[in-house]
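Purpose: get a first structural picture of the assembly so the mutagenesis plan has something to point at.
Setup: two entries, given in the order below. No constraints added.
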Amino acid sequence: MNLLHVDTISETRKKLAAYCERIAPAIEICGLIEAAGRVLAADCYSAENIPPYRRSTVDGYAVRSKDLGAAGDMTPSILRVTGEVVLGTDPGDVTVTAGNCVYVPTGGAVPDGADAVVMVEYCELFGGSMLAVSKSAAPGENVVQVGEDVRMGDLLVRRGRTLRPQDVGALAAAGISMVPVYTPWRVTVISTGDELVPPDEAPGPGQIRDINSYTVAARSAAEGFQVVRTVLVRDDREALLQALTAAKADSDVVVLSGGSSQGKKDMSAELVGLAADSGVLTHGIAAKPGKPTITGFDGESGTLFIGLPGHPAAALMVYEQVLIRLWRDLTEQPEERTVRARITTTLQSAAGRRTFQLVKLTDGEAGELPAAAPVLARSGMIAPMSAADGYFEMSENQEGVKAGDTVCVHLWK
Amino acid sequence: MNLLHVDTISETRKKLAAYCERIAPAIEICGLIEAAGRVLAADCYSAENIPPYRRSTVDGYAVRSKDLGAAGDMTPSILRVTGEVVLGTDPGDVTVTAGNCVYVPTGGAVPDGADAVVMVEYCELFGGSMLAVSKSAAPGENVVQVGEDVRMGDLLVRRGRTLRPQDVGALAAAGISMVPVYTPWRVTVISTGDELVPPDEAPGPGQIRDINSYTVAARSAAEGFQVVRTVLVRDDREALLQALTAAKADSDVVVLSGGSSQGKKDMSAELVGLAADSGVLTHGIAAKPGKPTITGFDGESGTLFIGLPGHPAAALMVYEQVLIRLWRDLTEQPEERTVRARITTTLQSAAGRRTFQLVKLTDGEAGELPAAAPVLARSGMIAPMSAADGYFEMSENQEGVKAGDTVCVHLWK
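Result (structure tokens, whole complex):
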């Protein structure tokens, strides 16, 4: 058996990351709305206390809680209303002194002297400026203290976070309206194979439709990358080398898909070796699916090359494990959250190779982990990937899993 | 206590859905790459078998498995090579008869007569056209049968699915290059509040920065909606009514944010009642957070109005529960996947109101559900939402949860 030298997946990423400085994504500054959904490139701290003043969370009356004692429905406390806080204006000299209170709208500043706000629902005005309060108040009730939401100097959002709506909100609250985010990689996808026809053409005998340029482009877009182009090239040495070389001008990543057969693998490796001035860095990885994977780096243009297996499921999985995870490492994203589940069936892993197993999840009884049923697929099949909820990994040294074992499932996006 | 008539969240959605025909998202046809990440608007079936021919998953020799018997390293079987299948061409009259074999590359058609393919690694050519095979083969080995991946007539992808890369791949494989997807809603976000300043301005005394137009716009974009504009309007009756009315011309959804104080709530309701020819449909919902919520529908323009609470966390949660879930219902999306967890603390829910509790998840021992620790937040706070991993719901009739209970956590996107 012909044993190529193969790298593990983490070795593959490490080799590429050795060129880290040159493949590190660029950083750009943009407005908050544009930044939503992108990866933050710096830790963002608050230069302010939020709220900057003691803020009422309700429409009500700012009071000294001790003035209310044990006020209740049958035993209201009586206070005098001495003023009103108007939203969006300086409360100025308004203060609350013993036996008095001040009206405050939701979001308004609680005046000095007061330590709580009683909701209007528990208050009744009478005699012009007198107030009957039918409820006691604990100190701090309905008041957000200065800096209680965010304290000056607090870390608001950590670098590497893909900005969610609430993160954008936290930044907006602190007055951070422009943030640094990573510039997404620009990706060219080149599919090759004389047997391939575009999806809108009917394949002739022995032909199949090109799938990988669609799946890889869609996966790239889902990660926020910019897909520069997808091209379908015949198995022609010159045409392929030309496509690879041309893509260096405007792409950070060039994906070459196709070439699971030995002859094609050899040609893909040779061409990547010619296009990338580092030569071929990885020639095969210890993964199932995904063995026939090639990587290279061109220092002059700063372009990363990856040659994927031809089988669609393998191509997508390798793209995820090598390229997407490299991007996440370089942009300092936290580890992806996985869902624990119990595998329903005993499964063997591929000896010495990291094995990725598709699964479908089903919730069981309360208190129990969900059940992960393996979705079985043979090389070259695409439907099982679409039917699966996600996958789990078995490491290179692991013999497999036994029915009932806990596995960590990566959910498909 | 002033008890407004309030709807439950599902009553709110039902009232809006009663106008379903007129608020139903439009459908458009687009190419697969553009369709990735969007919601499929029709069930897609395969009109073909995939693969359309028996396909080899390896580089090897197509054989009759019974010809190999118990072939092994020490006892190879000897076959005659009678031909070769060329990728992308019709295998034509090539067949495999007793004692013979034919070379097939990965992805090539397995010729008639053969029932398995032996990998080249186990084969050695000698004497020009003779082959020593050092491994037996089971029938079907390394062969994907006609229709094994997808059978003609199979459902490929169900309507309501947000198209993932592998779904796009399955559609491409079946030759479906154009698909119907829902046209995203066009959203205008109007923030109102005299106390609000844009994030890039320093708030004066009693002022705070506008957060909701950012969070609601970001949440809209994350769901694929088109954000037409975000505007900040003073608490001025005429200016607000003008903004609401103008937005009907080019928006499917108009979000009015602000107005947690009683006076503002009343004005928001009045203005929505004027702008929407249905009048106000919902005036308050039984949710915590989120009570002061208003909805309306303008039949003439087909515009849906939603007035959100002013508190940022409440605004985002109501937007999620009412508007985003209505969109998902109308586009027939499956229920969102939740992650089961054990709540670490006993918590009370708000009586008669659906309560949304923020949590942070931590994985425990293998076999155990993750722990969900409540993230405590007061009204008007934004940082806890950014710190949380997601939330779980307590229903209107539920008194709360006890420490150790299983809860279903919706993870933030």
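Chain B has four domains: 9-25+184-330, 28-50+148-182, 55-144, 339-411.
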